[in-house]
Design goal:
heterodimer, A: 113 residues, mainly beta, seven-stranded mixed sheet, 11 strands, B: 112 residues, six-stranded mixed sheet
Amino acid sequence: DTGVSQDPRHKITKRGQNVTFRCDPISEHNRLYWYRQTLGQGPEFLTYFQNEAQLEKSRLLSDRFSAERPKGSFSTLEIQRTEQGDSAMYLCASSLAGSWGYTFGSGTRLTVV
Amino acid sequence: QKEVEQDPGPLSVPEGAIVSLNCTYSNSAFQYFMWYRQYSRKGPELLMYTYSSGNKEDGRFTAQVDKSSKYISLFIRDSQPSDSATYLCARLYGGSQGNLIFGKGTKLSVKP
């Protein structure tokens, strides 16, 4: 499979728990992005990496959120002390620097109960 | 004010109809615009991108940007039931390639 892979597809967690999502981008893509999408809304930018460097973070990314891309390949997004408002689809995308072709994964749907 | 405004619909058309999907944007500082299609429970997939004004055609799809009115349009000719999806317009934020600003999306249903 040469697409963007996200794991898990669904996650149900209790409020206050920590969760971690993983994204495996297309192997030759050096840029990786995280977006969040709630029902009836378009995706909202959270952060992006070029190789292992985190170059930009949205103000949406509170200090309970942390993203890493330690070796410039896969990335993880961790949410600490989850809140009900964190319930959303978390989308990962990748691209080559200089191209417009972002490829999105199918997302991880988080439900905080 | 959101930077990209899009009517969420839903929009329902019969098979074979011409579909017109529209967005408006507020900041003319950057000129790259994209249209994404998102099927239920899937991530968005890039349909087309355009730079500045004018038309761009790809098969049954035509993207149009009108800088003077800050209007972005996507036309679908000979619409098919498989076109039923949510269509998202997006613009690139500033000079960064890491930050797309999306509209809310328009949900389209094409009835056979």
